[in-house]
Specification:
The chain is α/β, with parallel strands linked by helices. Helix content is about 40%, strand content about 15%. Helix 10 (about 285-300) packs across helix 11 (about 315-335).
């Protein structure tokens, strides 16, 4: 059955703080490792009072040091915020510390507003050079050439799998042209999902580099909130719905507690926005989660799913990931073996 991974934002819940959020992230990663999740990725966001993973490579080091087998990476580093050499050095260092366990997902969006971009000392036009910056970054991981003036140390000659992330056709085209794995942000922007993954698969060209993909590899983002009952799951899901509305209103903040009468607090047009943007969500009890998971995997043909589960209560979040893996494993037990997917990035 389809591999499952986790996307974490180290969310800061209302009434809590960044220290607790980071401790919860490590606890979740250890829980995921025991359950058999493949990857644990963290995302770069700046000037967000509800997210503790801004220093993404530092948090990755924290999580990787506290686990032993699960792959740890970024979903993603917003490359326009950084010089490619610095990212090569950071992730080369992570790969030297944790061989064979580090992934590097790259995004083109700056992940911040203009004021924050200025505070980061980044040129707003930096996103225009994203393709060239990706190629430069890839070069730093290749074995150093004789006479090469600038090297990433650590980094040069290390195998750090690079992914292209996206929510539009741009990332799909770039990933296909460079022969890289592609992760689509369908968990918050599903509208172009099918068009993007079709384009990627049709235009994919193997790069010919050592350890490169021979076939396209697609990972899709999906929100999952699983609980013992469907009513409880829908109640827990209102934290994510509130976060979405708050961001749209220009009022981002800590993760809010669930709200029993959430529908009464929003107008119809915001309800429509929620339904559209969070369409790639699986919310329910064990039976419903199992059914919708199977349908989503079959409908998309994804090689892997990466799951986001912003749940206010940490224990409920751990339980949700347990129920999800149980649902996945129960499907594997009754589903006849299929043709193997594309070889996953190591």
């Amino acid at each position: 059955m389809i591999p499952l991974s986790i996307l974490d934002l180290a969310s800061i819940a209302e009434g809590s703080d960044a220290s607790r959020a980071l401790a919860n992230s490590l606890d979740l990663a250890r829980h995921a490792e025991r359950l058999g999740y493949r990857r644990f990725w963290l995302a770069e966001h700046h000037n967000m009072t509800g997210i503790a993973s801004a220093a993404t490579s530092v948090v990755i080091a924290h999580v990787a040091a506290g686990t032993s087998t699960i792959r740890v990476g970024t979903g993603g580093v917003m490359l326009p915020n950084h010089a490619p050499l610095l990212i090569a050095e950071q992730f080369g260092t992570l790969a030297a510390l944790h061989p064979g366990r580090i992934d590097l997902g790259l995004g083109r969006a700056p992940g911040s507003d203009m004021a924050t971009a200025r505070a980061l000392r980044r040129d707003p036009r930096a996103a225009d050079s994203f393709p060239q910056d990706v190629v430069e970054l890839m070069h730093y991981f290749e074995p150093a050439e004789e006479g090469q003036l600038v090297r990433a140390v650590p980094g040069s000659g290390l195998h750090v799998p690079i992914w292209i992330l996206g929510s539009s056709l741009f990332g799909a085209q770039l990933a296909a042209a460079l022969g890289l794995p592609y992760a689509f942000a369908s968990h918050f922007a599903p509208r172009m999902m099918f068009e993007a993954i079709t384009l990627y698969r049709e235009r994919f060209t193997p790069s010919g580099r050592p350890d490169a993909l021979e076939k396209p590899y697609v990972m899709l983002g999906v929100n999952v909130v699983a609980a013992d009952t469907a009513d409880e799951a829908r109640y827990l899901f209102t934290s994510l719905q509130q976060m979405f509305v708050n961001i749209r209103r220009g009022q981002p903040g800590p993760m809010p507690a669930p709200l029993a009468d959430f529908d009464a607090h929003i107008p119809p047009w915001e309800r429509m926005q929620i339904e559209e943007n969070l369409a790639a969500s699986i919310v329910g009890g064990p039976d419903e989660v199992r059914t919708v998971l199977a349908q989503f995997a079959e409908r998309t043909g994804a090689d892997e799913l990466i799951v986001s589960s912003p749940i206010y209560d940490h224990a409920a979040r751990l339980h949700s990931f347990t129920l999800l893996m149980q649902a996945r494993d129960s499907l594997a037990a009754v589903t006849p073996p299929a043709a193997p997917p594309s070889d996953p990035p190591s």
